[in-house]
Automatic annotation (TrEMBL), chain A:
Origin superkingdom: Bacteria
Record protein name field: Carbon-monoxide dehydrogenase medium subunit
SMART domains named among the record's database cross-references: CO_deh_flav_C
GO molecular function: FAD binding; oxidoreductase activity
Entries under InterPro entries matching the protein: CO_DH_flav_C, CO_DH_flav_C_dom_sf, Diverse_Substr_Oxidored, FAD-bd_PCMH, FAD-bd_PCMH-like_sf, FAD-bd_PCMH_sub1, FAD-bd_PCMH_sub2, Mopterin_DH_FAD-bd
Alphabetically ordered keywords of this record: FAD, Flavoprotein, Oxidoreductase
Domain FAD-binding PCMH-type: 1-167
Gene3D superfamilies: 3.30.465.10, CO dehydrogenase flavoprotein, C-terminal domain, Uridine Diphospho-n-acetylenolpyruvylglucosamine Reductase, domain 2
Cross-referenced Pfam families: FAD_binding_5
Organism: Gemmobacter aquatilis
From TrEMBL, chain B:
Annotated protein name in UniProt: Carbon-monoxide dehydrogenase small subunit
UniProt source species: Gemmobacter aquatilis
GO MF annotations in UniProt: 2 iron, 2 sulfur cluster binding; metal ion binding; oxidoreductase activity
A Pfam short name: Fer2_2
Chain ranges of the 2Fe-2S ferredoxin-type domain: 2-78
Keywords: 2Fe-2S, Iron, Iron-sulfur, Metal-binding, Oxidoreductase
Highest taxon of the lineage: Bacteria
Amino acid sequence: MHNFELVKPSTIAEAVAALGQEGAQALSGGQTLIPTMKQRLNMPDMLVSLTGIAEMKGVCKGDGGLHIGAATQHAVVAKEAAAAYPALAKLAGGIGDPAVRNRGTIGGSLANNDPSACYPAAALASGATIVTNQRSIAADDYFQGMFATALEEGEIITEIRFPIPEKAAYLKFEQPASRFALTGVFVAKYPSGVRVAVTGASNDGVFRWAEAEAALSANFAPSALESLSLSGEGMIADLHGSGDYRAHLAKVLTKRAVLAAS
Amino acid sequence: MAKVSMTVNGKAVSGEVEGRTLLSTFLREGLGLTGTHIGCDTSQCGACTVHVDGKQVKSCAMFAAEADGAEVRTIEGMANADGSLSVIQQAFQDHHGLQCGFCTPGMVMAAASLLADNPKPTEAEVRHHLEGNMCRCTGYHNIVKAVLAASGQDAGQIAAE
């Protein structure tokens, strides 16, 4: 790994100032960033650690539903969101392994927007709001393709606000070596309708399955999905599964998520 | 270079580290605590698992400077005060929970973390908790037996599949 300077601000303002410097990059839990730096796929001159910023941590109820500080680790979300939003807590408790969950953060996952990550599915299916040091971004506008987001250079996610659904569930078919979702589906039922987000499947990253949302909004039952199918075109194809296989998994998992939703 | 100070196995330690110095490197090369093993260095195998402020982490996926001020516990801090093996370590020996032993420090640290949180886990909970720790010798069954035995439960019922 190339060397760099590590700085540890204690406020968002200090972090933003540090990130304004040439070659600076944000470090959250580091569970993705550190391995990519070891491979020299990423060579920052400076890392600005966000995990010591108290105002970016914690889980609480607020006007926007459940508010989660961006530097909150998965293990904390798994515990502290369990009463208010059990499907989200369960998702957090299924990411990686216990050691990864003690370091990795929700903000880091959403900023990275790995096409197989779990949190993007929760944020998109919940119609969450991504709050940054500059503005609030609707999840529908935030995810812009594989590893691409609406974040500007130097912009930091500070909090994520999840409207709490009537019913929800997340199911993933795990790639057994990495524990990433080979395909994962988050289904959330709100008074205004059902939202369905699919991760791990598309070359464009997480996406909403509009036809399934319309069918489930009319009839929230697995049978409502019978006549629907997703195309394998544009889906990720690799040694773990073809595009058609992932498209098939998305439908199967959506049905199972509807059954599991509580 | 920056100075870091932390408590490791109850002792105050400090040292000079670069930004890129991993916690695993600091423990092994800076402090000579080579019980923390580097298996894959890609944060997948769990052999480098230690506790930082009571939470298990992969020390190869954390910078030493991030542990500044923290309480760190490694396998060297797991034995009883008189030097005898702790309950978990003894259970690994009794149930043949290791062959080559390379993964064992990480397994013991992960098991300790599980039992601190969940003193009587089920077999399924033990297996789920150990997902981030790889063993290429034992096939895991004896490791699971050892963890169950360390929790004071009967480990005899686990079928080797």
